[in-house]
Specification:
The protein has 282 residues and is of the alpha/beta class. It folds into two domains: 116 residues, CBS-domain, CATH 3.10.580; 134 residues, CBS-domain. A four-stranded mixed sheet has the order 6-7-8-11. Strands 1-2-3 form a three-stranded mixed sheet. Helix 3 packs parallel to helix 10. The longest helix has 14 residues.
């Protein structure tokens, strides 16, 4: 399976001088999270919903130099963009996404923007394969076979500052929240960015530190309560279906008795797809 086979829609682009508010509206209308930035028919960058959220929560550009209400796409976009060709295979796509920590790759053909491959495209392809070839090794994989061995959690009465430190130290973006030994919610780096202007990326705490007046707030006040869960014995395909339907980035994994045993993320599934991409399809 090659990048060209994953493309279903023409790429959606935007000019660098467009405001970030207009970029948000374009993403909302098109139901996408990444926009290619094009000037004079040349790809000059890429902007994501995370870039915009980061700029707004930090109070401007990545250096905090401008009023968020006056920012343009060119001020916050990623200028050095990793690209692939239409002939790049599935395993290479997954490896690049994992190595660089990115969710979208522009597809370039003869210096022209040919399309965009996202993590969602890989998940949709995986679901299609499981439906078409139910006996394939992909379809037989269980959630317990895909989730990480280590389970990192926080308590609902832990301080937000502690949760930020744990995320940064462990290089994770999602933490299950426990109360009296039971799952009560999830807290993510996106929650922290929205509420605090804090970013956790690459194992380092970036952006401004947790404001002192919020550092001692309890995690339970910021978590997403009653998150969607998946059983450890469920298929990975079932997890992908739930993730796509709900727009989630992760799912807490539970036993039959409801006890928390792990977490499965989109990144875990992309890693699985990369590992199994060389398995022949009958």
């Amino acid at each position: 399976m090659l990048a060209a086979d994953l493309l279903t829609e023409p790429p959606i682009s935007i000019a660098p001088e467009v405001s970030i508010d207009d970029a948000v509206e374009t993403m909302r209308c098109c139901r996408i999270r990444h926009l290619m930035v094009v000037k004079d028919d040349q790809l000059v960058g890429m902007v994501s919903d995370r870039d915009i959220l980061l700029a707004k929560t930090e109070g401007g550009t990545k250096n905090g130099e401008a009023d968020p209400g006056q920012l343009t796409v060119s001020q916050i976009m990623t200028k050095s963009v990793s690209c692939i060709s239409p002939e790049t295979d599935m395993q290479q796509i997954a490896e690049i996404m994992l190595a660089k920590g990115i969710s979208a790759l522009p597809v370039m053909a003869n210096e022209d923007l040919y399309g965009v491959v996202t993590k969602t495209d890989l998940l949709v392809w995986y679901m299609d394969l499981c439906i078409r070839v139910p006996g394939h090794e992909y379809a037989a994989m269980k959630v317990r076979d895909c989730m990480p061995d280590e389970l990192i959690t926080v308590q609902s009465d832990d301080m937000v500052g502690s949760a930020v430190e744990i995320m940064a130290r462990a290089s994770v973006q999602h933490l299950p929240v426990i109360e009296n030994g039971r799952l009560r919610g999830m807290i993510s780096d996106r929650d922290l960015r929205r509420r605090l202007g804090v970013t956790v990326r690459g194992g380092l705490l970036k952006a401004k530190a947790v404001p002192s007046e919020q550092e001692y707030m309890m995690v339970g006040t910021m978590m997403t309560s009653n998150p969607r869960t998946i059983n450890s014995e469920a298929s990975v395909a079932a997890a992908v279906e739930a993730i796509l339907a709900g727009g989630f980035s992760s799912l807490p994994v539970i036993r039959d008795d409801g006890g928390l045993v792990g977490i499965i993320t989109v990144t875990d599934i992309i890693r699985l797809i990369g590992e199994l991409a060389s398995v022949p399809v009958a």
